[in-house]
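Pasting as-is:
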Amino acid sequence: MVHRSMTAIRRFKSPIGTRGIVASLLSLTLALASLGAFPATAHATVAGTDIVATTSASSRGLTIMELPDVVAKYGILVDADGNVLWARFPDDKVPEASITKMMTASVVLDAIASGQISLDTQVTISTNAAATTGSVVGLTAGTTVTVNDLLQGLLVHSGNDCAVALAEEVAGSESAFYGLMNTKASEIGMTESSFASVNGLDTDNHYSSAHDLEILARYAMHYDTFRSIVTMQSCTITLNGIATTFDNTNTLLGSYDGIEGIKTGSTDNAGYCLASACKRNGIELYCIVLGCETDTDRFTDTETLLDWGYTHYTTTTLATAGTIVAYDPITSWIDKTVSATIPSDVSVPVLDYDGPIDQQIVLKELSGTVRQGDVIGTITWLQGETTIASTTLVAGEDVQTPNALEAVGIWFQRLKLSFDKTAALTESVSTILPPVTISTPDAAANLL
């Protein structure tokens, strides 16, 4: 079967259209800053090395007003599939503090999924676990606590003692549990990480990267138990027979639209850190900020990045059901075509900074009877070289094959016209209809 490939271009309005005078503002400002032209400040910053999608901000020619203004030394913002929207030194190996506990919980939940333990398993608290320092829930040696309560204490209150108790229950010791953590990191593609702590306290050979941590966050969130716990603003667990309530250390819960967790962390070496997930209008984003100077900075940075993400990464309708995008000729006729239509609505999240969207249409060569709903081609949408959506094209109506008498008439008509040099033989040809232009936000319009 012969396929005819045709391309029509759907141009989304580029967010980089009115930059004239401000095109070099970012690089100029950075240069002046490096020379000490501006006074030192604790306020957030932007950097030409920040990554938007897969390209540095400076190479895109983005202005300061178009970039998120954050103070975190390292960070990343991705969608639910791991597509990068923004990043700052995402692969640098740095301490991650208690964000480590996402891995601790993941290994425990893997053990539950395999049937090794359950949420109701009673864990006897060791002297080692009870002696753990830092942020703790106050476990007592010799008492028993359920795995479920320990997970809540681990993720809601950031209990270091809960981490040790869970590690000992699953692997027998903390050191054995490190091996499970590193194995899991390798399995899910964390290439810049090494785990030598179950709770994230500063120690040698314990580090990760912003990119690895977003991979871990997305993995952990596939567990319903994990997702449920990290959204809790507080938890009540039973210790020594007494119900004790602990508040979540994540102040974004209940105050930021769509926030779903996930985990705070802070140590002297790591600074203040935060791993977050947020869902709005059907779009889930994951945000990691590391190396913030203050507790407030990590929450402010996260809000800034998520706000920026939801401004520039929006659901865009590419086509609606029933839209005719082309007419495909039927070779058994001289003058008949069938409409190629979209079978169902096509909507996808689109990052406006990635530029215009092209559509490519491929139609089948048709002959004989065509029924409404038959697949007669495909349409693919691309942003740059990346395919963002694809769907089949279906016939919009029935077209019957010519009967015997009609077929003979068509044959004679073609034969006659082939000998008549003064007559034009007009056969139906494929027709690609012009796409409807859909605009994306013009970030340059937001310049001060």
